[in-house]
Amino acid sequence: MIKKIKASTLLSNVQGGDNNIFGFKYNMNLYRGCQHGCIYCDSRSSCYRIENFSDILIKENAIELLDRELKSKRIIGTIGTGSMNDPYMPVEREVGLTRKALEVINKYGFPVHIITKSNLVLRDLDILKKINNKYAAVSITITTTDDNLSLTIEPGAPKSSIRFETIKSLSNEGIYTGITLMPVLPYITDSEINIREMVLRAKEAGAKYIMPCFGVTLRDVQRDYYYIELIKKFPGLREKYLSNYENSYFCPIPEYKKISYLFNELCSKHGISTKMDFYNDNKQEQLSFDI
Ligand code: SF4
Question: Whole-prediction pTM value?
Fold first, then answer.
């Protein structure tokens, strides 16, 4: 079901400011719910109070709110494009909230960091190039180099090869881009071969960084959903998770040390950073009052 709602506010301040791993100062969720349907998605956790995650709620007044809120901001900082949905999930093709939000962000001169699994981001290259005068980064999330496996664990998102091509296009257009390799799923995407191919294909595509998380977080409703999907798609794996992790929130991959060491070695060999560069304004820029 897709339905429209009215929101009371849009931008949230991100704790840790520009020191958080994605460099966000502000974050905005233009939608609630996500059509990509990744089996491990943390947004199903009960703390987010999303009743049915496959229902898509469109914040119909989001652009008006964004305009008003940015107009009153006195500190410039990187805006993130959502944490509980993908800003370029299929519905964005018709609704265009992300595109309109980028136009407002450009109008007020704010930097942006987009995280997505979709090649639809390429539609907005024209605006991204304008924002890039300040700072525009696009992180493409890729968890496996195997197209079939990506469609199994991220059924509503474009397959991995399309995501690598997206990085190539962004990189060729001068947009700062890289990979969020998150999560690395124990016993599913944590093989040495996946990590080796990931780094090589990132290099070929022109990715400037790969930011990994060698494990997955699991809690309450989200864990229940994940385990149901494991039973359907990976017979026997739920039992392995239960015996290894019980009720742990963070479930690291079994060969954490070995794989993270290998990853760091490969990235260093191929000149790929394992962190991203953030918008740097030498502290924080004060907006002039005539904006
Ligand atoms: S794309 Fe992100 S928000 Fe959407 S289902 Fe996947 S993990 Fe969740």
Answer: 0.95
